[in-house]
Amino acid sequence: MLTFIAILFLLAILMAFRMPIAFAMGLAGFVGLAAQLGMRPALSVLERVFFDTSSSFILVAIPLFILMAELLTAGDVTRRAIIACQSWIGHVKGGLAMATVAASVILAALVGSSTASTAAMAASAFPEMRNHNYSDRLAAAVVSVGGTLAVVVPPSIVLVVYGVLTETSIGKLFIAGIIPGLLTALGLALVIKVIAHTTDQAPKGAPFVLKTAVVQSRHVLPMALLIVAVIGAIYGGIASPSEAAALGVMGSLIIVLFQRSLSFGAFNRSVSGAIRATVMIVTIVACSAIFANYLAFTRITQNLLEFVATTDLSPTTIMAIMVLVLLIMGMFMDQLAILSLAMPLAFPIAMALDYNPVWFGIVVTKTVEIGLLTPPLGLNAYVAAAQTGVPLKTIFRGILPFLGMEIIVLLLLLCFPQITLFLPEFMTR
């Protein structure tokens, strides 16, 4: 136990000195293995774990989904989706903000990254809201919370990483995220509606013009068909997530080439961006596996399972504690770091309590999504502040009512698992 405490202290020190979470976990895990087994066996475990984890076929889905997002963003397709949504509902009071949420859903289904979605919204939707006299507080907050939808709505990179770390079906996780994602979007739109009718932060937008809305929607139709094809292929059992990701890359490339919106330089930048993001994620997964192996050799996980089996606490209480811990972690860490640190311990406990792994994955994902909005880290708020120039304090004030709705949605998912499990139960495979 003393060795385990020392390893945790080492991990905390490395993170305090801003070492990337992947390297901090890998180094701490290796030092623990060396102390537990000796240097030579520890090196053997390090070699085996790193190779087995990084060569997993399911990881193929990560670079493909990221590349799909990079291509669509570089091809200006995402900006056109925002404009199309604004042309339909931007004329009502608070309509531009609600259109931003609607566009965020489309963007989430295309990019899979919350920070990328927030940056795109900040560049496209925020200036439009400011031009129509929206308050900076509301406009920047909507941009920030809209970006979090990419964490839950498929094809979410966070869901892929959770599936890899816990060996849970990524296809079922994707399908399970659809209803919670749409429920979250409806909740955010409701908050905007209340703010628009009780304050002067959200005036009406430009008058509705049917011809303009139809013309702008033409650019969204290919994206909508691509989303349906990718998600439908997974839901119908026609393709695995990796195969569906390949379909998405091919479809996105066809769209941007047909619309002549992708230059050769932008294509190179898209590929480079996808490679950088993939290397980061695979490194996190592999180093997390090293740390998980250390926990297995020290029997920490087994001891926790034995404690759960003998404790008087109810499964509901244990789940509430885990969710609370994840929420606190979200105040200080990004979502991938939380998954890599928490899942080696939290997932076995959840399985010991006989919780559904798909449902647990959506709950965890929703919890880390909330962490993207909570200070002091609040990564999406920082991205929005950097893109818009709105002070962080103002953005966090604007986020507060949306945080309340996020908590309500999380409680609904906890109390009614069927919200999450309804669609996966009808999957072909």
From TrEMBL:
**Which chain regions cross the lipid bilayer?**
50-69, 105-126, 138-162, 174-196, 220-238, 244-262, 274-295, 307-329, 399-423
| Keywords for this protein | Cell inner membrane, Cell membrane, Membrane, Transmembrane, Transmembrane helix, Transport
**GO molecular function (one):** transmembrane transporter activity
Record carries keyword Transmembrane: yes
On the tree of life, the source organism's domain of life is Bacteria
Specify the protein's topology with respect to the membrane: Multi-pass membrane protein
List where in the cell it is found. Answer: Cell inner membrane
PANTHER family per record: C4-DICARBOXYLATE TRAP TRANSPORTER LARGE PERMEASE PROTEIN DCTM, SIALIC ACID TRAP TRANSPORTER PERMEASE PROTEIN SIAT-RELATED
What is the role of this chain?
Part of the tripartite ATP-independent periplasmic (TRAP) transport system.
Q: How does it assemble?
A: The complex comprises the extracytoplasmic solute receptor protein and the two transmembrane proteins.
| NCBIfam families according to UniProt | dctM
Protein name in the entry: TRAP transporter large permease protein
